[in-house]
Amino acid sequence: MIRSGASEIPEKRRSFVAVVKAAERSLRAAGMDHVFVGALAVGAFGVPRTTADVDVIVDYREGRVEGLAEAFRRQGFRVSADDLRDALAEKSHCTVHDARSEFHLDLVPAARPTAKDAIRHSVSVRWRNTTLPIADPEHTIVMKLVYGSEQDVEDALGIYVRQRKRLGLRRMRQFASRQGVLDDLRDLERKAVEIKYGARGTFEREIARARKQIQSGKTVSLEELRREDA
């Protein structure tokens, strides 16, 4: 609360964007290698969706836990050093709450090979006037297939369709093979091809019909043709 005379003025609630930027400042101040994953990676490379949490992998050790917790507290987050230690020891995750909003960080220590892979293959992405290290499309697609929910597969497909021409297919398939989801990746690739050529076929049919309309002396927009197909 901010005091003004005898009255108290509540602090402005932080937006999701502000929370992400505060998290990035915390991790930079602590000097931690890290990478944002989950919804931020999906939004950067696929189809954006809403979320209430910020997923981040952080490479920290026991001796740096106190400094990491303090860096978070200085940016308005609530977290205990003990929670960070437990996450590291159990190779699990730790929730870092934002004191000024309903958002929170879902922090995972880089204790497993997949987490280290995410950091190793992170890419710098310009996002809302700041630069963030984000897990690359190849890593994100494969891990979405590992998690395997309907939403995860939809996220993976959206990334694949948007990034298809830029993907490192060989590395992605090797990573998928190590995670036991190579067949799932092959299925995803087939679906992406179907989407690509299905959309192209629809567009080509619209163009052909428009040409016939023009030749007969009638003008019509593609939007009108689409309504006729509906």
Overview of the molecule:
The chain has about 230 residues and is α+β, with helices and mostly antiparallel strands. It has two domains: about 1-135, Beta Polymerase, domain 2 (2-Layer Sandwich); about 150-230, no CATH class. It is about 55% helix and about 20% strand. The chain is built from ten helices and nine strands. The chain has helices at about 15-30, 40-45, 65-75, 80-90, 115-120, 135-145, 150-165, 170-180, 180-215, 220-230, and strands at about 1-5, 5-10, 35, 55-60, 75-80, 95-100, 105-110, 120-125, 130-135. The strands form three sheets. The protein has a five-stranded mixed sheet with strand order 3-4-7-6-5. Strand 1 and strand 2 (about 5-10) form a beta hairpin. It starts with a strand and ends with a helix.
